[in-house]
Amino acid sequence: METRKVPEYFGSMVFDDRVMRSVLSDKVYNSIRKTIDEGAKLEKDVADSVAKAMRDWAVEKGATHFTHWFQPETGVTAEKHDSFIEPSPDGSVIMEFSGKELIQGEPDASSFPTGGLRATFEARGYTAWDPTSYAFIKDKTLCIPTAFCSYGGEALDKKTPLLRSMEALNKQALRILKLFGNDTVKYVHTSVGPEQEYFLITKEMYDKRPDLKYTGRTLFGSKPPKGQEMEDHYFGVIKPKVKEYMDDLDQELWKLGILAKTEHNEVAPAQHELAPIYAKTNIATDQNQLMMEIMKKVASRHGLVCLLHEKPFAGVNGSGKHNNWSISTDTGVNLLSPGETPYENAQFLLFLCAVIKAVDDYQDLLRLSVATAGNDHRLGANEAPPAIISMFLGDELSAILEAIENGTPYNGKEKNMIKLGVDVLPAFDRDTTDRNRTSPFAFTGNKFEFRSLGSSNSIACANIMLNSAVAESLKIYADRLEQADDFKEALQEMIKKTIKDHKRILFNGNGYTEEWVKEAVKVRGLSNYPTTPDCMPHLLDEKNVRMLTSHKVFSEKELQSRCEIMLDNYCKQVRIEVNTQLQILRRMILPAIEEYTAELSAGILKKKEVNQNLSCTYDTAMVNKLSGLADDLYQKAEELEQAEDKLKESPDAVSESKEIRDNILSKMQELREMADEAENYVSKECWPLPSYGELLFSVK
Ligand code: ADP
Ligand code: MG
Question: 195 C-alpha vs ligand 2 centroid, how far in Å?
């Protein structure tokens, strides 16, 4: 392992600002900076100069290829490598890379999901450089972060709508800041720090589990005698092998300029977390994708496998990704941080209200932005926030809002009425705003933590919806305030109204309880969509289409295609699971049960040869029990297969996904329970799969 000091190699594989400043002429540097900071158009000669400098830098670092690195809707990243080489007339080669190659690529995109956006005769897709995210070198390849769109200009990736949503929020936030007399701010952006959870198991164990290989999660497995009950793993001592992995991982991430910061054990055995320091949302999104890739790669160097699935093990906590989100100005002010002057406070409260309104009005969009087959196993399972979206503000901030709403004195020291824009907000203790782990959307002092994301998800979708919904609140506010005769009066009124209209979304209690589910739905009228088939079709609800298209985040066609792709992914994922489950059952588990019962039966005969009168109670009972289970398993597998066959008759992805929800999932679960019971009785030697205990405690 390298012993060089961290600052020497941090970002050494990134074509970042430091590199650009040193290798580009002042003129080119200033002009690319303008493109990065303000979205100014990139001139051809500038692109050529940047490309040349990028190539020299990359070749010097050993790169031989370049790729436009993008994030299609499959949720992973895609790349197609081209080498730099160009033939020279004398038979040798030179390393070439033009501005045109930097700016635009043209991958044959026919096998990426498009949800009907692109006819097959027009299979071309375009990738376009996103200069706001730095290029980097990975595996001797210069990777250029790009957006990916169709010939007709429709977005085929997650990056394009994310950038559009950031722009929408920027536009509306600037209008609000102007109303508060702030003309110096040029740009408002959102930042995200995603906390990434994962499991580590040994490669040896992984290789013996076809379910993990094909589906990312175990489809069978009886609970180990010791799981996470003792809670001795959380923040516990990190095992040497895991420590080596984390150190190596940090180094790789640091070279790529990713600010990996905290690493610790999580609640479940073999579960860990890695959190980087927050960055602008588009960069955080790119870096999180890259991080997940590197996590897997580094694991394989250590004889380990990094599991990013939301629920690799039943009965043990799954993995999520907390999306810490805030809004800041280019002048370095966090707009979700309570300020020190009356005006700053009023502004803070307005942005806070914008988020409250956004989360309430677009609960469904936030819910569906995190919906996948994998995450459905977590949400609402008493280990992750419920599928119902609500917000936690903490007691003090809630009391302040209540006082504003009712026009009553706030119960703070001075028992003051709060007059916005005139009074300073009473100081509240930030510590009390944290630590409600059951809330899907919690205010944590100067940022919100959206906790419903699944560990394998791209963070793009959640942030697209969040940014857009908040942009919509801000737009409504700005429309009204710009027309107001008395700004302060109007502001106070609007904040009051928001609290009154949207307080149903605020909930500081325990989100894991049955009572909350009842109260949320029956009393407060919040929506509860437990599964992906329940929530995804709401993407096309009229109010959602209207909002997202009005801010130009998606076109209507893009939304239709996305809904279809998401549901299609869901159905494919579950069908793969069904087939894997059937295969493991028929080719591994049933034969094992047979082998073991045959062994027992032979044993009974042998014993009786010794003594006719032996009762053989134990062996006989086992043979009966296991034969019964084998028959039931066989029967259930037939039923599951028939139900899966019937899916072919579904006319579209919406009905197929509902069919899965209603007729497949419970059969899979029943099948699993029977097999898990059998596992408890069959000898360890005969059982063909490593047990949960062996998997979860495999890393020493
Ligand atoms: P924890 O949630 O474990 O208490 P922290 O709150 O310190 O930890 O940080 C969690 C994540 O939130 C980190 O990735 C951190 O960089 C990020 N974070 C901190 N401040 C902000 C902010 N203003 N905007 C977005 N993310 C932030
Ligand atoms: Mg946190």
Answer: 7
Does residue 383 have its Cβ closer than 6 Å to ligand 1? no
Q: What confidence score (pLDDT) does residue 55 get?
A: 95
**Cβ(585)–Cβ(639) under 8 Å?**
no
pLDDT of residue 120: 46
Cα separation, 419 vs 486, in Å, equals: 14
What is the count of structural domains for the chain? 3
Going by CA atoms, what residue is nearest to atom 17 of ligand 1? Answer: 193
Question: Which atom of ligand 1 is found nearest the CA of 336?
Answer: 23
Give CA–CA dist 659/578, Å, rounded. Answer: 14
Per-residue pLDDT tens over the stretch 439-473:
999 999 899 999 999 999 999 999 999 999 999 99
- Judge if 169 and 153 occupy the same domain: no
- How far does Cα 590 stand from its chain's mean position? 37
CB 636, CB 667: distance < 8 Å: yes
Question: Whole domain around residue 545: which residue ranges?
Answer: 165-221+228-416+425-554
On whether both 143 and 169 belong to a single domain, the answer is: no
Assess whether the C-beta atom of 281 lies below 6 angstroms from ligand 1. Answer: no
The number of the ligand 1 atom at minimal distance from the alpha carbon of 275 is 14
Same structural domain, 112 and 190:
no
- Which helix (H) or strand (E) segment is 683 a member of? none
Does residue 446's CB lie within 6 angstroms of at least one atom of ligand 1? yes
- 471 and 335 both lie in a single domain: yes
Q: What is the pLDDT of residue 495?
A: 93
Report whether 132 contacts 162 (CB < 8 A).
Answer: no
Same domain, 593 and 665: yes
The answer to whether residue 564 is domain-embedded is: no
632 and 489 both lie in a single domain: no
Give SS3 for 426: coil
Asked if residue 492 and residue 631 are part of one domain, the reply reads: no
278 lines ligand 1 (CB under 6 A): yes
CA 359 to CA 352: how far, in whole Å?
A: 11
CA-nearest residue for atom 13, ligand 1, is 193
pLDDT along the chain (700 residues), means of 10: 77 95 96 85 90 95 93 81 87 88 77 65 73 92 90 86 96 96 94 97 98 98 78 76 95 95 84 95 95 97 97 94 97 90 83 98 98 94 87 88 83 57 59 70 94 96 98 98 93 94 94 92 95 97 98 96 95 98 98 98 96 94 98 98 97 97 97 98 97 93
Distance of alpha carbon 327 from alpha carbon 474, whole angstroms: 12
**Atom number in ligand 1 closest to CA 277:** 16
The minimum-distance atom of ligand 1 relative to the CA of 328 is 23
- Answer whether residue 563 is part of any domain: no
Ligand nearest to the Cα of 261, by number: 1
CB of 218 within 6 A of ligand 1: the answer is: no
Q: Is 259 found in the same domain as 112?
A: no
Which-ligand-closest: CA of 447?
1
